Amino acid sequence: MVSEDLESSAKKILDKVEVDEVEVLIQRKDKALTRYANSKIHQNVGQKDFDVSIRAILGKKIGSVSTNSVDEKSLVDALRRAENIAKHQKEDPDFIVLPEPKEDRSGKENYFEETVGYTPDQRAEKVKEIIEYASSKGVDRMYGAFETETIEVLVANTNGIMKSSRMSKANLTATAIADWDNDQGFGWSEQCSANVKDIDHMNVAKTAVDKGLNNMDTESIEPGEYTVVLEPLAVNTMLMYLAMMGMSAKKVQEKRSFMNGKFGEKIMDERVNIFDDAMHDEMIGFPFDYEGVPKQRVDIVKNGIANDVVYDSYTAGRDEEDKGSTGHALPMPNPMSPMPLNLMMDTGDASIQEMIEDTEKGILVTRFNYCRPVHPVKGILTGLTRDGTWRIEDGEVTQPLKNLRFTQNLLDAFSNVELIGAERVLFSLGYYPGYTSVPAMKIPKFNFTGTTEF
Amino acid sequence: MREITDYAIKRLEDSDIQYGDIRFSDILIQSIQVRNGSVESIKDNNSRGFGIRIIHGGWGFASSSVLSKKGIDETINRAKKIAKASGKTSEGVEIKDVDVYEDKYVNDYKKDPFEIDLDEKIDYLVEANERLNIDEKINVRTSNFKAWRFIKEFASTEGARIEQELVQCGGGLSVTASDGDDVQTRSYPNSFGGDYSSRGYEFFEGLDLLDNAEKTAQEGVDLLKAEQCPEGKMNIILNTNQLALQVHESCGHPTELDRALGTEASYAGTSFMTPNKLGKLRYGSDIVHITSDATAKGGLGTFGYDDEGVKAKKVDLVKDGIFVGYQASREDAAQVDVEVSGSMRADGWRNLPLVRMTNINLEPGDWSRKEIIEETDKGIIFDGIKSWSIDDKRLNFMFGTEAGYLVEDGEVKKLIKNPTYTGITYEFWRRCNAISGEDDWKLHGVPNCGKGEPPQVMRVGHGVAPARFEDVTVGVGKW
């Protein structure tokens, strides 16, 4: 259920349309974020916003306007501006029509009153407990953020789509710096859920604190190829960049995807299955995309084979064989659309502890930092380890290591995978309402190309 | 909107808070992108609202787009509750005293980009896009334009009343070429949308996209068959578009005092340039002089006053190669007792101000670019941002550019592809042995600097002239 005022705002616009087609996207957000650093809350914000985006279409000419003014005059003014832009536009021969209504797949609603009603005092209390726990364990300083958010979205168009949904989100992060004066003892943990009551803040604190306390007196290790045990957050980063580097129809159509020329071919280990599924039980997602198209499950890599990519209505219309949109449009117009926003990976059968015990010589990685594609079409990514990197020797975690830079072909990494974790962890991507749910992985021959000083 | 800010300040003054301010913004953004001959998007985005900061035990910030007395009252109450909650873990907040201003500021521009006929902008971009269409190997051609207008009003319980109007614009070109074996991208005047300035449409016209389209496209195609960047250690010369990013990542971010004090530790990270190194750390060679200058004419980080009401100023960060200064907010400056640099900015009314780069500039040297090349036996010129990564203390970095040019015996010999270089920040800057002078100095605009939670995207500037660095590791990774 979404407030009737969103539907009312959309109707005010659709009732006054003077061009061929119009799409209205309304998003209402209520976000609160309590940030803590040096063991005290230093930034604490509450944001309320309402955004109306209008796409006006005249033949194959498209104009777009967005506004956050919601009175009827402002909405109609915005419509007229969008229509006027469309009149000045050049034709886009690849545009067909706005989507027609289709029934969404059924699934749970990711909206919880506990999250909606969570107060600044409640967030502050949890943060205080995290700080006090860390202090009791001898950790110098704690850092992180506790975020709660609700989003309502409505999509309507002149072809009859009028649908709305809502979701809530709670995300807690914690960084421990166990020894501030000597600049060491970094540890990290985070948890994400649609329902804030599921956030186990003390478990997040304990994981970050344990990692921090076990990450002192780090040593350098020579760059080179090592077997790595990647915790789920590190795998999440790799998967996120793989998505950016080529899991959309647009990238494929423009020959900018690592999947170009490889459909039907094995590009990863046969145990690797990567799919996008907003309606999966473990996932948080809207049932439709920003054009109002139902979100389909898309099996992107199936048994290691390049299988499919995600589509919006525009890219679907450009393919010779129009398979239809898979429901992966971003708010349009958008050069990044379409994009998978609910990526998941099939689990294996190993625990992280078993991966470590199975490793004679290797490196355990908590997470990666500041990754960037070096050559997107070849799938080459660089970045650094962060907040907990350890040497593994004879099946045991032995020595904390200074952070390392990797420069790695991700297709090679996913091809070389030796073990896949038995459990998935949900992460917020931090942009749009985007999430991943991924397991840990053990990968040999991971290429580290540099070291840093901490 | 004076009535909004006046009402808010009266309510804030009547309450029992330590400090309060309101920042109202009316933001208009126009973006046009042409892709492969068609106008992919034209979008006008208008957003109005206000943010209220309060110190009341701790910091509280709340924002709203409800522009009424009721909306202000609700937002003030929310900010107060948030501030009081912050106080649960805080022992109070101290902010450094600054001069208080009542003033108006409008940045210098000749042609209002929003007054230029839409057809003129579209036709120009379509023409530029067509001029990129020189070879069937080119799969993607983009030409784009973007303009911003910020009308801002800041008022504080200390008596500040500042109105500002900032107009900014720019654009660029890009091609992606593919031959079945490789894919390469080339952009002008820089990647990620081009170049931007706090000037009017005259700046966009001055980019001269039409005359630069064919050369850009040809180099995109040529890169497909260019030799791979060699591996090893050698001299490198950074052209201004890449040097701007080098300054941004390896000096701009680590001299943000909030980072150095740990307040970004859980997200973007901290800094190796900690307060105990101020005045002592040899950051670079003697010729390295880096400033934070919010007064630089036309800079994308230029303004009259920051979002704490501090007047724009120029501050030394690195002088004669020594780390000497920070970008600091009133709160951070009070903790370390350094100068308030006037660097606090929010990317809109929704978000709270953070320490953000203004124009972080490498001051000109006494070489010319031509002389640097002539005096280089062997090296690589790096041009056009492609890939950038740096650790969370801003020490180990690796950058890749769209194109490289091999220099031998003082001459540019050939184009090379996938050029990368890596190093440790202070070691790298200590190897800087030549900086070009004012004639080669260029002020670039970077419109996409990310920081903070919730994330904010800021427009910043970097003035640089080409510079040379010796004995740098190039050609990283397996290809």
Describe the structure.
The complex is a heterodimer of chains A (454) and B (479). By secondary structure, chain A is an alpha+beta fold. Chain A has two domains: 4-213, PmbA/TldD fold (2-Layer Sandwich), CATH 3.30.2290.10; 224-451, no CATH class. Helices cover 22% and strands 37% of the residues of chain A. Chain A contains ten helices and 19 strands. Chain A has helices at residues 4-14, 72-88, 113-116, 120-136, 201-213, 232-244, 249-253, 313-318, 352-357, 410-416, and strands at residues 21-37, 40-58, 61-67, 141-157, 162-179, 184-193, 224-230, 274-276, 298-302, 305-306, 342-345, 361-375, 380-393, 396-400, 404-409, 419-420, 425-428, 435-438, 441-451. In chain A, strands 3-2-1-4-5-6 form a six-stranded antiparallel beta sheet. In chain A, a hairpin with a 2-residue loop joins strand 2 (40-58) and strand 3 (61-67). The radius of gyration of chain A is 24 Å and the shape is globular. Chain A starts with a helix and ends with a strand. The mean pLDDT of chain A is 96. Chain B has 479 residues and is an alpha+beta fold. Chain B has two domains: 2-225, PmbA/TldD fold, CATH 3.30.2290.10; 228-474, no CATH class. Helices cover 22% and strands 40% of the residues of chain B. Chain B is built from ten helices and 24 strands. In chain B, strands 1, 2, 3, 4, 5, 6, 7 and 8 form an eight-stranded mixed beta sheet that branches. Chain B has a five-stranded mixed beta barrel with strand order 10-17-18-20-24. A four-stranded antiparallel beta sheet of chain B has the order 13-12-11-16. Chain B is globular. The termini of chain B are far apart. The relative contact order of chain B is 0.14. Classes of the chains: A alpha+beta (454), B alpha+beta (479).
Oligomer: heterodimer
Work out the strand percent of chain B. Answer: 35-45%
Structural class designation of chain B? alpha+beta
Shape of chain A: globular
Number of strands of chain B: 24
* Alpha carbon gap, first and last residue of chain A: 50 Å
Share of helix of chain A, binned: 10-25%
Question: What global shape of chain B is seen?
Answer: globular
The SSE string of chain A, one letter per element, is: HEEEHHHEEEHEHHEEEHEHEEEEHEEEE
